[in-house]
From TrEMBL:
Protein's UniProt keywords contain Transmembrane: no
Region (Disordered) residue spans: 230-255
InterPro entries registered for this protein in UniProt: DUF1501, TAT_signal
Regions of compositional bias (Low complexity) in chain numbering: 243-255
Protein name per Swiss-Prot or TrEMBL: Uncharacterized conserved protein, DUF1501 family
Signal sequence range: 1-22
Alphabetically ordered keywords of this record: Signal
Cell wall biogenesis/degradation found in the keyword field: no
Source organism (scientific name): Micromonospora krabiensis
Length: 412
């Protein structure tokens, strides 16, 4: 779905207002973000929000391998104890999550279990709107990070999406974040050797010349990255017979997650003013043959996140980055007849980074005391948002989340 169609959809659905969309409609480039380098408090933290579109199966991501009810509900889909990456004597990570397992052992991964909201909605559209607006009781008209942006001055560069269209979560009542395209940028007709010469730093050069060189260097590196992404895209994308259109209007970015996170890393290392980044990956609507498809997708997530967290650990600014990973809902406890799972409710939220207190948080949801076949949530997702607003973005959560006072204690 192109950006114009996306905007029309959002206006028609009432998820965000036309004023906010207009505020975020201008085209932003990486150079626009780099122009803010040095404008932020060096002690300020940065939030990176990773959305897994389609409804990732939480039970086969954080696996309750020791629970007989898990194996009874999923005879062919369940993982055996020897197949998974153990966190303790009851739960483990999916086999594809080797990097996250290492980060958990290093105390840099927190798993918040049983996250959801009252009266859950199993529609991709409505459930994602609820997560984006943080207003489960009624249809929201602004995104939770958009409302935060309204309160801190409204500069779009403070909240940036590297997705193909501005996600509703970044649209406020009077402002909206910036959408910066990762793909579709070209270096023009100049040969690479010419660009390299223009990008070269010269001793004693003026500040203007240095800035120009930096812009050419950025243009050259991004162009090379995009070429690499396009060449590897067909190999990286999981194959699925009869694959449908993305389950949500954004459907996850078309550019691989590691490329989006590389852009985030460049911004963090440059010291730009951006405090919140949004990236995504789609394809998690696993109604059939789930194990193989989910492992491919989680493998992409694992490689991208573990490399990003390791890279961030090398700098002071990077060590202040907190990554939050979520999906619009989990899957039903019982497998369906196609060796997949159908739309469910509660699931896990992952927090990663050097400033995260690793471990398991929240009580594991019961696999036998169910709500019409679905997990009962134990942690309201607004508790997670409030914690991120307070501990990462240094904002009173009540101003953004309608006086919400819950928190996830001890995780940050």
């Amino acid at each position: 779905m192109d950006v114009l169609t996306r905007r029309r959809f959002l206006v028609a659905s009432g998820v965000v207002g036309a004023t906010a969309l207009a505020a975020g409609a201008a085209a932003y480039r990486l150079e626009d973000l780099f122009a803010t380098a040095g404008d932020r408090d060096p002690e300020a933290r940065t939030l990176v929000l990773v959305t897994l579109y389609g409804g990732n199966d939480g039970l086969n991501t954080v696996v309750p391998y020791a629970d007989p009810a898990y194996h009874d509900a999923r005879p062919e889909l369940a993982y055996q104890p020897e197949e998974v990456r153990h966190l303790d004597d009851k739960v483990a990570l999916n086999p594809a999550l080797a990097g996250l397992h290492r980060l958990y052992g290093a105390g840099r991964l927190a798993v918040i279990r049983g996250v959801g909201y009252p009266k859950p909605d199993r529609s991709h559209f409505r459930s994602m709107d609820i997560w984006h607006t943080a207003e489960p009781e009624r249809p929201g008209t602004t995104g939770w990070l958009g409302r935060w942006l309204d309160g801190v001055g409204g500069d779009p560069r403070l909240a940036v999406s590297f997705e193909p269209a501005l996600p509703p979560l970044l649209a406020g009542a009077s402002s909206a974040g910036a959408s910066v395209q990762v793909s579709g940028r070209k270096a023009g007709a100049l040969p690479d050797a010419t660009l390299a010469a223009l990008a070269a730093r010269v001793p004693g050069e003026t500040a203007a010349r240095a800035r120009a060189a930096a812009c050419f260097a950025d243009l050259r590196s991004v162009d090379a990255m995009i070429r690499d992404v396009r060449e590897s895209e067909s190999a990286d994308e999981p194959e699925a017979d009869g694959a449908a259109d993305p389950a949500t209007p954004t459907g996850g970015a078309r550019t691989p997650l590691d490329a989006q996170l590389d852009m985030v890393a460049q911004c963090v290392e440059a010291g730009v003013s951006t405090r919140a980044f949004s990236v995504s990956l789609g394809g998690f609507d696993t109604h059939a043959d789930e194990r193989q498809l989910q492992e491919v997708l989680l493998g992409q997530v694992d490689r991208a996140l573990s490399a990003f967290v390791d890279r961030m650990a090398r700098t002071d600014a990077g060590r202040k980055v907190v990554v939050a990973v979520y999906s619009e809902f989990g899957r039903r406890v019982r497998a369906n007849a196609s060796d997949g799972t159908d739309h469910g409710t509660a699931s896990d939220v992952l927090l990663l980074g050097s400033g995260v207190r690793g471990g398991l948080y929240g009580a594991p949801p019961s696999l036998t005391d169910l709500d019409d076949g679905d997990l009962r949530y134990g942690v309201d997702f607004r508790d997670v948002y409030a914690t991120l607003l307070e501990r990462v973005l240094e904002t009173d959560p009540g101003r953004v989340l309608a006086r919400w006072d819950g928190r996830v204690a001890g995780v940050l």
